[in-house]
Recover the amino acids of this structure.
C-alpha cells in the first residue's frame, strides 16, 4: 500500500515496506489518578487532541529511499512546526516531525546502502526511520 507525505501540494512517495511500529500502542484517552483526603480514588480522564506518535521504520534491509528524497525530507523536517499530510495504511493524518529531546528520538534516521565518497541524488539509503506526531486540526 502506498505511503505518502504531502506539503503544500508536493507529494513524496515513501517506501511501501515501512512498518508503522506504534500503530496500536497509543491511546486516545489521557488519565490520571490520585487519592482524596478520605482515601477515595479520584480519576481524571479526557480525550487527547493530537500528539499521537507515528513511527515508520525499515527492518534493516528494507525501506530503500533515494538520497534525493532524503534531502527533501530533511529540508521539510528543518521547518519548525510545519504540518504535513501523511497517508499510511489508508488513513490520512495531519502530522509534524517529532524531533524529540535526544538523538535516539530524532525525526529521521537511515543507513547508506553503500558508502560513497561523492554521493549523488540517485544513491540509495535503507533502514529508514521517520518519526511524526499527529497534530491537532487547528494550528
Amino acid at each position: 500500500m502506498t505511503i505518502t507525505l504531502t506539503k503544500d501540494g508536493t507529494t513524496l512517495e515513501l517506501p511501501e515496506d515501512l512498518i508503522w511500529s506504534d500503530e496500536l500502542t497509543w491511546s486516545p484517552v489521557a488519565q490520571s489518578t490520585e487519592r482524596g483526603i478520605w482515601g477515595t480514588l479520584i480519576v481524571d480522564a479526557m480525550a487527547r487532541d493530537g500528539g499521537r506518535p507515528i513511527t515508520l521504520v525499515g527492518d534493516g534491509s528494507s525501506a530503500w529511499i533515494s538520497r534525493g528524497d532524503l534531502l527533501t525530507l530533511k529540508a521539510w523536517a528543518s521547518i519548525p512546526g510545519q504540518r504535513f499530510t501523511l497517508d499510511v495504511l489508508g488513513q490520512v493524518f495531519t502530522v509534524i516531525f517529532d524531533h524529540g529531546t535526544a538523538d535516539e528520538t530524532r525525526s529521521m534516521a537511515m543507513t547508506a546502502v553503500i558508502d560513497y565518497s561523492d554521493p549523488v541524488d540517485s544513491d540509495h539509503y535503507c533502514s529508514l526511520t521517520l518519526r511524526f506526531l499527529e497534530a491537532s486540526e487547528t494550528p
